[in-house]
Amino acid sequence: MLENTPQLIKLFSLTTASFLVAMVLTPILTHYLYKYKLSQKIRVCAWDGTPATNFLKFHKKKEGTPSMGGLLIWVTAAVLTLFLNLSRSQTWLPVFVLVTTGSLGLFDDFLNVKGIGAVRGLSVKLKFVFQFLIASLGAWWFFFKLDFSSITIPGGDWIGLSSSWDIGWLYIPLFILVVVFITNAVNITDGLDGLAGGTLAASFGAVAIIAWVQGQFGIGIFAGTIVGALLAFLWFNIHPARFFMGDTGSFALGSTLAVIAFLTNSVLLLPVYGFIFIVEALSSLAQRFSKKYFKKKIFKIAPLHHHFEALGWPETKITMRFWIIGVVTAVVGVVLSVVS
Fold this sequence. Notes:
This protein is an all-alpha fold. It is globular, with a radius of gyration of 20 Å. The chain has one domain. Helices cover 68% and strands 2% of the residues. It is built from 13 helices and two strands; from the N terminus they run H-H-H-H-H-E-E-H-H-H-H-H-H-H-H. Helix 5 (124-145) packs across helix 6 (171-189) and helix 6 (171-189) packs antiparallel against helix 9. Its cofactor is Mg(2+). This is Phospho-N-acetylmuramoyl-pentapeptide-transferase.
């Protein structure tokens, strides 16, 4: 235990430093976001072109609140990691993904607030193309450079299966699918004040502990650094939000969470410690499928958090209950990882 003390001190130091730096930078960032009116327009139509009447009823009052707040999180975490925790084997790739996907989201946010493009920002197809390219580069690096081709099956030994399953070249499409899916799942979850920030803090806390138990201290410290910045962001993002995360935050953090899941061989536990994101994304996909093929809605509004809004739940009630679920499932994910 004592031999890990320097790493433990580094973990708490960088997590605290990340929180304090982000807290100091927030007033500066929000000043310029408000000064230059860098806020997204509230959408008036659903994905299928129908009027988003219910959504507007709940969120029209938020129009004018700046976006791009996620910039605060990934820039703080990336800079501190580059100077104080950079490791070729552990943190280089997740930092690269954090910065590239964060930059993609920032570009999309900028186009949106400036009203550039036919859909105010990048089209859905173009976003997927860029996400696919970044994920493909990561998959290539994992498979050919790091020799990753196996996934860990939690509790496999308990049911008579091998705890590790070598899937060969299938690792590449699995990596791409998970990274792109989780990136967009986090983006979908970012719909209420504090919702994505709080659940992400729980998930990154989980992977920090998982990495630490495995002895991957660099990854654990990196995840802790993100948690520190997330908590500072959350201080200003809880209801009523001073600013929103935007695509720059959700893209960066969703993709990085997925990459760390692969680095820690906990990707099959991602649906556990990232439970809220999975449910939110699946609720949105189910709604689209049902409306397209059966002409019926499953939920009043999708994703799930908007459904509860339509049922009359206060925004803060939904957020805090989702936080509770997120924390509980994060703890369960850690326990399953440790005992496996």
